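Ops channel
N.P.: pipeline sanity check, posting one input/output pair.
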């Protein structure tokens, strides 16, 4: 069954050209020019994935994302002309699955869409086993991670990153390896997404995030999850 993608952008030329290319690539594309229109459309025809412009008239992309997250589980990829890292990081913190900066290469966008849809499917049918690493426990089926019995409030990406590190606890995991395992091959050459998510993980996992003892940086190589005794 073809996947339905909801494209939300106030540029009519981009909506026409991108929806045409999405249709050619085997997807069913719906379009909306505003956040309000997109939410109404999604209620009547729920999408499998949302491409969401950050600069929208009326309700902007960040507010629209919050509204989507309250009602829908479909992955959301931001389309943004803003190059400031703040916008990208804020979007990810609010629950976006990915972002891509305009102007973008169509093949790159299609690769990101495939990764996001594949991750969404994997989240529905998890096959990973529970892990215990020192005082850290991770249950992928229940999507619960806890340290010393205290449950951590993690985003899906943070959870997957912690699982990847815990899978090789006590050993260094290269940044490129983390990119492939957590984000997919469409993220090659973008180590900054790992750096950002490691920073967020440390804020939730470390007693003193500025002096981390659990997720240790191995400069020039990657990261290592140090085991803490139960």
């Amino acid at each position: 069954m073809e996947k339905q993608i909801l494209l939300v952008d106030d540029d009519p030329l981009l909506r026409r050209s991108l929806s045409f290319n999405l249709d050619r690539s085997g997807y069913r594309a719906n379009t909306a020019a505003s956040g309000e229109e997109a939410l109404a459309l999604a209620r009547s025809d729920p999408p499998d994935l949302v491409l969401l412009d950050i600069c929208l008239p009326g309700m902007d992309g960040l507010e629209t994302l919050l509204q989507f997250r309250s009602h829908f589980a479909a992955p959301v990829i931001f389309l943004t002309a803003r190059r400031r890292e703040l916008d990208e990081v804020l979007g990810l913190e609010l629950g976006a699955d990915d972002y891509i900066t305009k102007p973008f290469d169509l093949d790159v966008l299609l690769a990101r869409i495939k990764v996001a849809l594949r991750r969404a499917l994997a989240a529905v049918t998890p096959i990973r086993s529970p892990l215990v690493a020192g005082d850290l426990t991770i249950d992928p089926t229940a999507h619960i991670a806890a340290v010393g019995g205290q449950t951590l409030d993690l985003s899906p990406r943070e959870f997957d990153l912690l699982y990847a590190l815990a899978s090789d606890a006590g050993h260094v995991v290269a940044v490129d390896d983390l990119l492939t395992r957590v984000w997919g091959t469409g993220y090659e050459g973008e180590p900054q997404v790992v750096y950002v998510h490691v920073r967020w993980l440390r804020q939730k996992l470390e007693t003193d995030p500025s002096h981390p003892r659990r997720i240790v940086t191995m400069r020039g190589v990657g990261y290592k999850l140090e085991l803490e005794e139960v």
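N.P.: looks fine end to end. The chain has two domains: 4-124, 131-225.
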